[in-house]
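fyi for ur records
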Amino acid sequence: MVKILDFYADWCGPCKVLEPVLEEAIKESGVETEKINVDQNQDKASKYGVFSIPTLVFEKDGKEVERLVGLVAKNKILEILEKHKT
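which gave:
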């Protein structure tokens, strides 16, 4: 199963723009997601090597398979999910 880790911050403009795009992609694909506020979870952000936000980490079976940094289109998110769903 593929899971998306969404690293964001409340003050991050691009994160706010990405949020509805990501929500649509999640609705269409039905994947699990975890929102991680980097200000409140610095240890987890450090563990995943997140230096820029927004960052989307795609995990399959608990292992990172891909990562997107910055604003991305919904079709790019769906393309990655489709690629790793089997």
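The mean pLDDT is 95. thats all i got for now
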